[in-house]
């Protein structure tokens, strides 16, 4: 039976190129569909089928620098929320996907993690472990392929591996969004969009690495750039102040960024991880905006560890504060935890992802799942 399943999988994958779906604009009504293809492959139209019927969508070609591959991209809009959609490029394999709901009539399931692919098998393992829980959306925290703005072949491997292993139990594709991390940018920090050619090729973001992703009127993800292609002070923080305030009464407002405000490793001699300049800026400029606008959960990454803080407000434990989950260990070599850090409820050096269930009453149930599918931490974050 196992041999048959492997043969069947190989047959399906050989029938067409890898396909993935990002959904930054409106996950409830719009899909950003991509096919990985050789540069000389035919640019087939995308056929989209749903309850309203079938239609063809034009495709654009996006180069993947330094490789002999491109992305065939189709932006599909006018879809019905919480509905099944079938996608097919030309005569390739048809793929199913589901748009997200605009309301929380049932808990919305989010898979989250960052720092995804030192080794392909580690990435694949955690993909499978989280996909088995049937998430509605994957929210990545940057450092996807570890291409450093230079290594295009790693991008191709990432796309193919995600396509092959990040499938819901019923076989459908899992859409994702992602913030940017240091390993998407030449030099890591202090760059701009020109220093992150692969990230902006993969994502239809118009060269802007921060944005709001709204799901109806109840849920907002705040994707931020922790000094990789955009500076933290100035325009980005001004944008954050302007955009988060009107969303303060939403049921869930969840910031997602790469470098953490409350890191768990990487300390200079005589310092603690909290002294990192990026962490200090985030705590000074972003956290007051989070705390003033109803945030109860923030998603942090980069450190290659597991962490869950106690609820924090103004830098101190407070049951009405924000819980910070992290710390970016989806598919990377993990690191030892800095000893005796305050604010931490639980830490570990363990590859994992979080499954977050967002409830209509504002509650979040979080489950930490390691690369082999084992649950090793759980938390309930109360409504604001």
Give the number of DSSP strands.
23
Overall average residue pLDDT: 94
Helix proportion of residues, in percent?
10-25%
Radius of gyration: 20 Å
Main beta-sheet strand count, sense and barrel state:
6 strands, mixed
Structural class: alpha+beta
Q: Could you name the CATH class of the largest domain?
A: Alpha Beta
Based on Cα principal axes, name the global outline: globular
Contiguous runs where pLDDT drops below 50 for at least 5 residues: 1-15
Question: Which sequence of SSEs, written as H and E, runs from N to C?
Answer: HEEEEEEEEEHEHEHEEHEHEEEEEEEEE
Individual helix count: 6
In terms of DSSP E residues, the strand content is: 25-35%
Protein model, in words:
This protein is an alpha+beta fold and 384 residues long. Helix content is 18%, strand content 29%. The protein folds into two domains: 17-91, Purple acid phosphatase-like, N-terminal (Immunoglobulin-like, Sandwich); 108-381, Metallo-dependent phosphatases (Purple Acid Phosphatase, chain A, domain 2, 4-Layer Sandwich), CATH 3.60.21.10. The protein has six helices and 23 strands. The strands form six sheets. A six-stranded mixed sheet has the order 11-10-9-21-22-23, with helices on one face. Strands 1-2-6-5 form a four-stranded antiparallel sheet, covered by helices on one side. β17 (312-313) and β18 (316-317) form a beta hairpin. It is globular. Mean pLDDT is 94; it is low at 1-15.
